[in-house]
Design brief:
The chain is mainly alpha-helical. It is 70% helix and 0% strand. It is built from 4 helices and no strands. The chain has helices at 4-9, 15-22, 27-34, 43-70.
Length: 71
């Protein structure tokens, strides 16, 4: 399977979601905020934000493909 890189990329499961929740935002909103220019977030948090965005894009594509097959 091609998804092996995802397992390797996720070093701290749930950590980014937890940070987003603490900030009172969704993971998508928090990722956008963290990746804005001038953000004071740590490089780890920024990497987590990039990964979160990537995975959410993939999830979106997967859902769209499934709906096309069901149609």
């Amino acid at each position: 399977p091609m998804a092996g890189w995802i397992k390797k990329a996720i070093k701290r499961p749930g950590a980014f979601s937890k940070k987003a929740k603490k900030a009172g935002e969704s993971t998508a909103e928090y990722a956008t905020k963290v990746l804005k220019k001038g953000s004071k977030a740590s490089s780890r948090t920024k990497k987590q934000a990039v990964l979160a965005k990537t995975l959410s894009k993939m999830r979106g594509r997967k859902r769209a493909a499934k709906e096309m097959m069901d149609a």
